[in-house]
Amino acid sequence: MVMLAPGIPARSVVPSTTDQPQPIWHPSPNFGPRRDGLKPSLIVLHFTAMSKAATAIERLCDPAAEVSAHYLIGGNGRLWQLVREEDRAWHAGAGEWHGKDDINSRSIGIELDNRGDHPFSELQMSKLEQLLKDIMGRWSIASEGLIGHSDMAPGRKFDPGSRFDWQRLERQGFAACRGCDDGPQNAQPDLFRALARDAGFTADVDDETLLASVRLRYRPWAKGPLEPADFTPLGHTALWT
Ligand SMILES: [Zn+2]
After folding, report:
1. Peptide bond before 33: cis, by omega within 30 degrees of 0?
2. Which intervals hold domain N-acetylmuramoyl-L-alanine amidase (predicted)?
C-alpha cells in the first residue's frame, strides 16, 4: 500500500494513455500537397527564435506569414501538431540536402520552442525523442534522415543552433553517429568540401559558410580556419590516410 499525500492522485503502474497524450491539434492553413508524390524521408529540426510557444503558434498559423511546421514542442514538453504528416508544411524554404531540393516535399518539420541562446529543456528533449521514434517508425526514416535547418540552408539558417544536443540524439540512434578518427595532417578545403558533400552538405556556398554550417552541427564551439578536427565528425578516414 502506497501512502499518498492528500491531493496527489494515485497512478497505476500500467502505463495509461494519459502518459503519452496525443498532440494538441492546432491546424495551420499554411500547407499544400507534397509534390511528385514524395513521402517524408527527412526530419528537419528548427528552433522558433521566439520567447513563447504561443507566439510561435500564432505565427505558424497566420496565413500572411506563409510558414508552418508539422509539430511544435514547447519548452515544457507540450506537443502541438499544426499540419498532417501526409501534407507539405512550409518550414524548410530554399536549400538542399544530398543534392535534393524542395525539402518541404521530402520532410517533416519540427519546431522547438527555444530562443536560440539557451539550452533545450529535458522535458522538451524527451518529448522530441518520443516523437522522433513515432515518426521514424511510421515513415521508415533512418537516423541519417534527421537534419537541422542549418544543414540544408547553410549561411541562411542557423537553427536548431549551437545549444542543441545532437550527440544525445546520436547516442540513442535518432541521428547518424559522427566519425571519431583523427583528421588529416594537411587540412585542405577541397577535401573538406568533398567529405561534407558526401555527408549531405551539398548546398552551393563558399568555403567559409560551409565550414560554419558543418561546425554548427558538430563543433559549434570551434573558431578559426579549417583544422584537422573539422574532418573527424565527417568520417571516411580512408580518404585521408
Ligand atoms: Zn528553421
Report:
1. no
2. 28-161
Distance 91 CA to ligand 1 centre (A): 6
Three-point CA angle 108, 112, 69, nearest 5°? 35
Domains with residue ranges and CATH for the chain: 21-171 (3.40.80.10), 189-239 (no CATH)
CA-nearest of 141, 227, 153, 233 to 185 is: 227
> pLDDT by residue (tens digit) across 21-44?
689 999 999 999 999 999 999 999
3-class DSSP assignment, residue 43: strand
The grid cell for 61 is 498559423
Active-site annotation, residues: 111
Phi, psi of 118 (to 5 degrees): -150, 160
* Average pLDDT of the residues of the chain: 91
pLDDT single digits (tens) 38-93: 999 999 999 999 999 999 999 999 999 999 999 999 999 999 999 999 999 999 99
Ligand 1 centroid to residue 52 C-alpha, Å: 16
DSSP symbol at 18 = G
CB 91 within 8 A of CB 68: yes
- Return the C-alpha cell found at 45: 529540426
Q: How far is the CA of 19 from the centre of ligand 1 (A)?
A: 29
Matching residue, cell 521566439: 50
